[in-house]
Here is the input.
Amino acid sequence: MNGDAALTSAPNPPFKIADIRAAIPKHCWIKNPWRSLSYVLRDFILAFGLMGMAVYIDSWIFWPLYWTAQGSVFMGLFVIGHDCGHGSFSDNRMLNNVMGHVLLTFVLTPFHGFRIGHRTHHQNHGHADKDEAWVPLPENIYKNLDSSTKFLRFTIPFPSLAHPLYLLYRSPGKDGSHFNPNTELFLPSERSNVFFSTVCWSLMFVLLLVLSVVIGPVQMIKLYWIPYWGVPLQSGTKDCGLFIMRYMKEICLDKELKFVSKWLRRGSLSYGVDDLNEIRIEWAKYFMKHETS
Here is the structure.
C-alpha cells in the first residue's frame, strides 16, 4: 500500500471498554499509597545499592551487568513516575505530584510537562495529526529524508536518544517544548506547574554537573549516564518490555559470566516469538500463582 492509498477501518471488537473494566477484579482498582511508596523505596534502594556495588567492585566484568540492571531500575522509576501522572499511584493528587516530581526528576523528565503531553497522547491515540507521542511518518516524507536523517532516526542506538529530544522539541512537526510553559500544549492554568517542573529538572541537572566535578566525569558517566541511555532496545517491535525481561533472564542465568559481550551486542540482539512467549508464559504463571493464592 502506498502513502496515498485509502485506509479502511478495522471492524469494532466484540466488546466495549466497560466489558474489560467489569472483568477486572474489584480489588485491582483499589489504590494503596503505602504499597506504592514501598515500590518507590525498593527501587531507590536498588538504584543506590547498585551504585555502591559498582563503585566498590569497580571491575569491567561487573560494569556491563551494572549498566543493564541499573538501566532497568531507572526504567522502573520512570514507570512509577508515569503512573503518578496518571493518578494511579494513589487517590491523593498532592502525593501523586510530589512523588511524580521525585521519580521523574531523578531520570531527567519534567513531571508536569511530561504528564500533560502524555495526557494529550492518550486523548489522541494513533491520530496521525494530534497524537503527541506517536507521529506516523508518511511514505512520501520518508522517501525524501536525507540519508543522515534516516540513519539517525532509524538506526540503533540513536533512537534511544528520542526521549530527551522529544521532551525538548516535542514530536516532529510540532512546535514548543515540554520545558517551556508557554508552549501551546499547555493551558494558561497549567503553566505555573510546568515552570515548577522545569525548575526541578534544572536543579537535578546542576546536581549531576556538580557530582561530575566531585567524583569525576568518567565515574559519573559510568554510574548515571550509561544506565540512563543504555537500556537495550529491540528494533521494530512493541514487545520491548518482554525483550528486556528476556535479556535480564539471560544475564541472570549466565554461568559463564559473559556480561561484557552481552552488553556490547545489546543493540543487535534479536529474540524470536518463542523466546518472548516463554517470558509471557512465565509471567502469566507467576501472576496466577500469586493472585489466586
Summary: Confidence is low (pLDDT under 50) at residues 1-5, 232-238.
